[in-house]
Design goal:
mainly alpha; 7 strands; 3-stranded antiparallel sheet; 334 residues
Length: 334
């Protein structure tokens, strides 16, 4: 094992340790985890063989650490990743070295050096709970690596910081309109109930604050002193603390179940599309394909349809916010 001490597998970026099942390339001597080698089906440095490349463990001890510094998720995601200096060719490697048809390579820019790319690699027939990984990635769109990892773990309860911060609007962003509407209604209900329970306190504070604003004869120090007294005497702090606690609970629930809900949404969308196709339904081709005059294969049309139904929406959260504001203003006016 001392031969590979301080060495890293060029596929997953994890340092070799005692007891690892290691295989070396018979042509250049590059060591790999056996699982990683079988995953990509060849030596990670195969594209360098034609240049006479021979693995030097002293040289690669430092070289292999550099690409993964720009990839903070590489070790967690294991053999899905190939470092930029590794030999697994990506989609833009060139005509002479094409990726294996058994695998799909998705190039990924590496941090501050966009010209250098790693790759997300997976078998074309790889599935998560019976659903093709390629379909899942197509539906997710942006930031798919994080969700693929979560989908494979399939935890009932997780944590999503974006969902915690943005609450129901995050669900709209990911096109989960049903859950988004439900939690937005819960937030509205919490605000409405608290405003009804504390109507007297809120009205007293609002009227007192309005009088202070209109009173231009008092100094700034006196204004802030009276405002502080008004806040303490009106009891409005209690109302806002209860509201804050209620909204925090709702956001925590959303953050805990957002990934689970999104997983269900992605899998259901793919299942619905396949069910419709099996029943004889047809998918309208992309307008871009119609304009080009070229007939697209059904598989490509299906992929474009999944991508259109999936992905994210920047407009949905804005529309939800405007709708909630409009309803709130209408109720306040009435």
């Amino acid at each position: 094992m001392s031969l590979y001490e301080n060495q890293k597998c060029p596929v997953c970026g994890v340092a070799f340790k005692s007891g690892d099942d290691i295989v070396t390339c018979p042509e250049c001597g590059t060591p790999h985890h056996r699982q990683c080698y079988e995953k990509i089906g060849k030596c990670a440095n195969s594209e360098l063989h034609s240049k006479g490349f021979v693995y030097n463990r002293n040289q690669h001890k430092n070289v292999q650490e550099q690409p993964h510094a720009a990839q903070p998720g590489a070790q967690q995601n294991g053999p899905y990743y190939v470092p930029p200096q590794g030999a697994q060719p990506s989609a833009d490697t060139g005509k002479n070295q094409q990726p294996s048809s058994e695998y799909t390579h998705i190039p990924i820019p590496t941090g501050n050096e966009p010209s250098k790319k790693s790759a997300f690699i997976f078998k074309n027939d790889e599935k998560i709970d019976g659903v093709l990984l390629s379909d899942i990635i197509t539906v997710i769109g942006t930031n798919f690596i994080k969700f693929v990892t979560k989908f494979k773990k399939n935890k009932k309860i997780g944590w999503n910081w974006s969902a915690f911060i943005f609450g129901p609007y995050y669900l709209f962003f990911r096109k989960m309109y049903g859950p988004g509407t439900l939690f937005l209604a819960l937030e509205f209900a919490a605000r409405f109930i608290i405003s009804m329970v504390f109507t007297k306190q809120l009205t007293a504070f609002s009227n007192g604050a309005m009088e202070l604003v209109q009173n231009t004869s008092i100094s700034s120090a006196e204004y802030y002193s009276q405002l502080n007294s008004l806040i303490n005497s009106s009891g409005v702090i209690t109302a806002y603390l209860i509201l804050f606690a209620a909204l925090a609970v709702i956001h925590i629930i959303i953050a805990a179940f957002a990934d689970r809900l999104y997983r269900r949404r992605v899998f259901s969308l793919i299942a619905d599309v396949d069910k419709k196709l099996e029943s004889g339904a047809t998918i309208a081709p992309s307008p871009f394909a119609m304009q080009s005059g070229e007939e697209m294969p059904p598989a490509e049309i299906r992929k474009l349809f999944l991508a259109g139904k999936g992905g994210v929406s920047f407009f949905a959260p804005c529309i939800a916010f405007l709708a909630l504001s409009l309803i709130t203003d209408m109720i306040a006016y009435l």
